[in-house]
Design brief:
eight-stranded parallel beta sheet; ATP binding; helicase; Rossmann fold; 20 strands; 576 residues; single chain; nucleotide-binding; 30% helix; binds adenosine-5'-triphosphate; alpha/beta; Helicase_C-like; disordered N terminus; 2 domains
Length: 576
């Protein structure tokens, strides 16, 4: 079996040179200024994603020599950092807190890895773990990710670089993954991390929170130098500005009563750090010299960062530094839907789909099983209809199909459309993303009855420590094209550079634009092209859990979200 790396090796090439605009670092005013609810935007560091080799080089960034040499050998196709990567790595290595937003597939996560690998490791200390007598080095950085596949992707990049490092420390001392694993007890999972604390620990917030809640001393989180939160808008829930203030208040109450694991974990880490720093300053200790008496540097990033989340992070969370000039905000090319752009509203997506060469198609499945391009898929821009009253909302509970609509027929016809497109259009590998409540197993089974080589998308680590796609012999992908099937929850941030086609079944996340942007962003990475093909069902009645019947108009929902995302559906020429 060939490793997952082969997908990565087919990695994107940088775009042809484009001149980057000079960027200015900006600092956000310390949150101790005026009111806690006041949000100081400050100037943004807005730069272009395109590389400019003369100005920007990995060599100038001060990466650790061993890391630089190994990275060059492991990723020969990655020649120059983009201006944003340059700014980002520089800011991280200087110890600043960073809030980064740039399009999907522009190398944010990859740049974070290079920066973290180059960080200095703290001095060994006497651990609290029973039975551990010799001093151990601290965990330097913690990377928080929304799902296991992304954790293994980070791990895999590090593994590839580690392979070329000299002198070579052991891989577990460089990086380890900590995710929920039902096959092992928490203690069994923790043992290798406690025995050999890694330089970089990659984990999901829930798994780490489980540990902290059971035993706050089990992991030395009080000695972390840096915390990176990838896909921050997915991990931290905030309430958007709504016209209905009562609903907003209700949602805010819900979040404060039941904060998610990332909030709880960061609250734990940063409030403990503040307490320690306060105590140390009362005792007159020099906090700079004692790692356990400082707060960890915080780096957060995503391709989509709504204003309400940004406000929460910068003004209310209390996690970012209050030190003047120590917080760097970096924003990629401004999308036409950025709040700075004319007519933009809070409700409009603040992100764009990564590649410029991505085509967006929408196929509509009729009640009678016909498949056709969405009506407005022409050269002219699609006009999105107004939001309708009868569109189901999250509060209505899960949707149930009504008697008149044959959900099974719709599903099978949609899968038939995917199977047909896959057969004629996909040379090696494609991704099919399903709604969160769909059964991957059933879809994989149905697709195989249409002769599709379909598999669950699953990145795993094997016994030798290598990360790869489960059950995938990537050697055979070109001979036997493969369709990887996943749900929305497990595709965030995933990098499959060979991917040129993403199929989306239905309208994901009830029409949330950001979800579409992230799924679509699995293609078109680093300037490559790709196709995003949504297969939706004609308007039909659905029964909600509360017994109410509403109309679900998927064609209308998708047109509305595409308009917000700033993209136009074009005709998919394989169908009428
Ligand atoms: N400077 C570079 N030149 C060429 N390729 C690069 C460069 N930096 C990263 N890449 C490649 O680009 C791909 C995308 O990287 P990455 O997953 O870090 O993007 P991202 O911005 O984090 O995406 P997302 O927003 O979807 O999480 C990877 O395959 C990586 O190897």
């Amino acid at each position: 079996m060939r490793p997952f790396s082969l997908l990565v090796q087919a990695a994107a090439h940088p775009r042809p040179h484009a001149h980057g605009r000079a960027a200015t670092l900006c600092a956000v005013r310390p949150p101790c200024a005026p009111s806690i609810r006041t949000f100081h935007k400050g100037p943004r560091d807005t730069v272009t994603s395109h590389p400019h080799p003369d100005e920007f080089s990995f060599e100038r960034l001060g990466l650790r020599a061993a890391v630089l040499t190994a990275f060059r050998l492991a990723f020969p196709s990655v020649k120059h950092p983009t201006p944003i990567q340059h700014r980002f790595i520089d800011a991280v290595l200087k110890g600043n807190d960073v809030l980064l937003k740039d399009k999907t597939g522009t190398g944010k996560s990859f740049a974070a890895v290079l920066a973290l690998l180059s960080q200095k490791r703290g001095a060994p200390y006497k651990s609290d773990v029973p039975g551990l007598t010799a001093p151990v080095p601290p965990i330097t950085s913690l990377i928080l990710v929304p799902h296991r596949d992304l954790a293994y992707q980070f791990y895999h990049w590090i593994e590839r670089i580690h392979h070329h490092m000299t002198p070579q420390e052991s891989l577990p001392s460089l990086a380890q993954v900590f995710i929920r694993d039902s096959t092992m007890s928490m203690e069994q999972q923790l043992a290798p991390i406690q025995q050999t604390p890694p330089h970089i620990l990659i984990g999901t917030p829930q798994a780490l929170l489980d540990v902290v809640q059971k035993d706050p001393k089990a992991l030395p989180l009080d000695r972390l130098s840096t915390i990176v939160v990838d896909e921050v808008d997915y991990l931290i829930e905030t309430v958007p500005m709504l016209a209905d203030k009562r609903t907003m208040a209700k949602m805010e109450r819900k979040i404060s009563q039941h904060p998610g694991p990332t909030r709880l974990l960061l609250n734990h880490i940063y409030s403990s750090a503040s307490e320690r720093m306060e105590k140390a300053s009362h005792q007159g200790k020099n906090t700079k010299r004692e790692p356990e008496n400082t707060r960890p540097q915080l780096v957060m990033m995503s391709a989509t960062l709504r204003n309400h989340l940004r406000k929460f992070l910068l003004a209310d969370s209390g996690w970012f530094t209050k030190e003047s000039g120590k917080l760097v905000r970096i924003t990629g090319e401004v999308s036409p839907h950025d709040p700075k752009a004319p007519q933009a509203t809070e409700d409009v997506a603040e992100g764009t789909v990564g590649g410029t060469g991505i085509e967006h198609h929408v196929l509509v499945v009729s009640k009678h099983g016909d498949i056709m391009n969405i009506e407005s898929a022409v050269e002219s821009p699609a006009v999105a209809p107004e939001e309708s009253e009868d569109m189901p909302s999250d509060d209505d509970g899960a949707l149930l199909m009504s008697q008149e609509f044959d959900a099974d027929l719709a599903l099978l016809t949609s899968l038939e459309a995917v199977a047909a497109s896959f057969a004629i259009d996909v040379p090696s590998v494609a991704l099919l993303v399903l709604p969160s409540d769909a059964s991957i197993q059933r879809v994989v089974k149905e697709l195989s009855t249409y002769g599709v080589n379909a598999h669950t998308l699953d990145v795993v680590k094997d016994k030798s420590g290598r990360a790869h796609l489960m059950r995938q012999d990537l050697d055979t992908m070109a001979e036997k094209p493969t369709l990887l099937v996943a749900t929305l929850a497990s595709t965030r941030g995933l990098d499959l550079p060979g991917l040129q086609h993403v199929f989306i079944l239905g309208v994901l996340d009830n029409g949330a634009v950001d979800s579409y942007l992230h799924v679509a962003g699995r293609v078109g990475r680093f300037g490559r092209g790709g196709k995003v093909i949504s297969v939706v069902t004609e308007r039909h009645a659905v029964k909600l859990k509360n017994g109410k019947e509403v109309q679900r108009d998927e064609p209308k929902m998708i047109l509305s979200l595409l308009k917000k995302a700033g993209v136009k559906p074009t005709v998919y020429d394989k169908f009428d």
